[in-house]
Amino acid sequence: MKIQMNLVAAAAVALLAGAVHAEDLVVKIGHVGPTSGGIAHLGKDNENGARMAIDELNAKGVMIGGKKAKFELLAEDDAADPKQGTAAAQKLVDEKVNGVIGHLNSGTTIPASKIYSDAGIPQISPSATNPKYTRQGFKTTFRVVADDVHLGGTLGKYAVTTLKGKTIAVIDDRTAYGQGVADEFEKGVKAAGGKVVKREFTNDKATDFTAILTSIKGTKPDLVFYGGMDAVAGPMLRQMKQLGLSAKFMGGDGICTGELPKLAAGTMADDQVVCAEAGGIDDKDKAAVKAMEDFRAKFKKKFGADVQIYAPYVYDATNVMVAAMEKAGSADPAKYLPVLAKTTGYKGVTGVISFDEKGDIKNGALTLYTYKAGQKTALGVVH
């Protein structure tokens, strides 16, 4: 009889545990980036940043509205292609995700943003810098990096005032990101009193730049700016060397990766490349520097790879979104979206995050980099 009672009690405990587990709140976070194609290394970097945040949140036991949240990452590949990007966005909407982190490229982020907006699903991009993204009037769009107006304009001014560029050539890959950052760079050059003597374009899958570079060489430029990603910038640098074009080479965050020296096949000379990465931490802020160093160490231990560029921003974007859910006491997009929009003073590994009325980060920082002995080396942080 006693054994029977113990069995009944055990069954009751198991049923109770099952009921508690059933009451857990499942929160689906979507992530989209190019995990195939020429910049798959950047897409995987982003996805890993999201995965790290999700794993840590689950280990922490986050409570939302009195329920323990169980976070699920729904990762999609957009191959940096706008059509595939919108298909991925629709798939996540159909999966009824609670929020989306992504996309990586402006060219996929912008068309996808309408789909999320129509569904009322908050979207935080960790890396899309084209100004149009947050200027469409959507209430669901946010980003945690400075936009091209700031990034391209700062690089344009730096090219003229610091690098003393007198004859400047500009190339872009005709994507939303590449052309956008090149346009802003050109405006920055002109505003600083500089002159762009040549403007050329290619595409994001090109491998031969002989004709473009030969045409540019005729203008004897002392600086070449490329708006695009590292997968094209690397071969372009190789071909510049082959043609005896020793001009300084500048670009935005798309080229500012640890992979660039490898893609350039070691043809880069020290200090030849200057690029800017949206975001950055002032060396004087010791606590912030340590937080980023700790993140990079944890990331390498978990994934066996160094951070490329955006993983910390994805990590912060995921945590900012979840912090809004906690504060709102709900993972329902309609309920936590107004709280997310009012985010101010959130301390992430990439710095302090506050959103303005458009969903842009306030006082976004930029870090300028060069390369020495094949290693990315910081020149300084500007706001």
Automatic annotation (TrEMBL):
CDD domains (UniProt xref): PBP1_ABC_LIVBP-like
Coiled coil: none
Protein name (record): Branched-chain amino acid ABC transporter substrate-binding protein
Top-level taxon of the source organism: Bacteria
InterPro entries assigned: Leu-bd (IPR028081), Leu_Ile_Val-bd (IPR000709), Peripla_BP_I (IPR028082)
Key word Cell cycle present: no
Signal peptide from the UniProt entry: 1-22
Family recorded in the similarity comment: Belongs to the leucine-binding protein family.
Record keywords, A-Z: Amino-acid transport, Signal, Transport
Limits of the Leucine-binding protein domain: 27-374
